[in-house]
UniProtKB/TrEMBL annotation:
<dbReference type="InterPro" id="IPR006062">
    <property type="entry name" value="His_biosynth"/>
</dbReference>
<comment type="similarity">
    <text>Belongs to the HisA/HisF family.</text>
</comment>
<keyword id="KW-0028">Amino-acid biosynthesis</keyword>
<comment type="pathway">
    <text>Amino-acid biosynthesis; L-histidine biosynthesis; L-histidine from 5-phospho-alpha-D-ribose 1-diphosphate: step 5/9.</text>
</comment>
<protein>
    <recommendedName>
        <fullName>Imidazole glycerol phosphate synthase subunit HisF</fullName>
        <ecNumber>4.3.2.10</ecNumber>
    </recommendedName>
</protein>
<dbReference type="InterPro" id="IPR050064">
    <property type="entry name" value="IGPS_HisA/HisF"/>
</dbReference>
<dbReference type="GO" id="GO:0016829">
    <property type="term" value="F:lyase activity"/>
</dbReference>
<feature type="active site">
    <location>
        <position position="11"/>
    </location>
</feature>
<keyword id="KW-0963">Cytoplasm</keyword>
<comment type="subunit">
    <text>Heterodimer of HisH and HisF.</text>
</comment>
<feature type="active site">
    <location>
        <position position="130"/>
    </location>
</feature>
<dbReference type="InterPro" id="IPR011060">
    <property type="entry name" value="RibuloseP-bd_barrel"/>
</dbReference>
<dbReference type="InterPro" id="IPR004651">
    <property type="entry name" value="HisF"/>
</dbReference>
<keyword id="KW-0456">Lyase</keyword>
<keyword id="KW-0368">Histidine biosynthesis</keyword>
<dbReference type="InterPro" id="IPR013785">
    <property type="entry name" value="Aldolase_TIM"/>
</dbReference>
<dbReference type="Pfam" id="PF00977">
    <property type="entry name" value="His_biosynth"/>
</dbReference>
Amino acid sequence: MIAKRIIPCLDVKNGEVVKGTNFVGLRSMGNPVEMATLYSQNGADELVFLDISATNEGRNTVVEMVENTAKHVFVPFTVGGGVSTIDDVTRLLKAGADKVAMNSAAVRNPSLITESASRFGSQCIVVAIDAKKSEDSTWHVMTHGGRKDTQINAVEWAKKAEKLGAGEILLTSVDTDGCKDGFDLALTKAIVDVVDIPVIASGGCGKPEHFADVFKETGVSAGLAASIFHEGAFTIKEVKADCLNRGVNIREC
């Protein structure tokens, strides 16, 4: 059985790690390279950087940050935010990222998924899906930092993304993001059950047992969190110890 992964997420804005609730109310948490280095040294299986203001501000992800991170971090890391062309994907991978995540651009131009996967391999291409519960009880894909409702069914979009060549899905619940009450198990299970590629669950983790819950209740491959790590509430080691105690197959620190 493949071990489950614990992934700290660093949302970056203006060169600083930030965190909010339901994608708003952002507050500064620290330097992204320094924080990434610390997580890498303390048991993170992977890392994710998301330049959350890149699409709204119409700019590219800061390549310099990626280059600096690659010099200090020795676990795989994914970078997303403002990725809109194959040149953006190329630039980030050359700078040292192991994978590139795309959200708004993939929705706007689905062929970018196929073009990127064909050139670099599906293992490098992550489709980020920010999903929010709609009035009809389905989940809609949200873009532009969770601000724009595309009216696209998130479950159907996940299936399409896989067919287009995505190698992994980073699934974030806009409804539970930053709330610390646990991952959105219903949303996560709905997505995991219709795709064969790995899915990373994101949004809502507030304590170690939330990781074990999402691993045991769904077929998700990894759990991603920000607040509990950035605020020092729990360490990666404590999260992994709890998962092991609850029977989850996970890499020890």
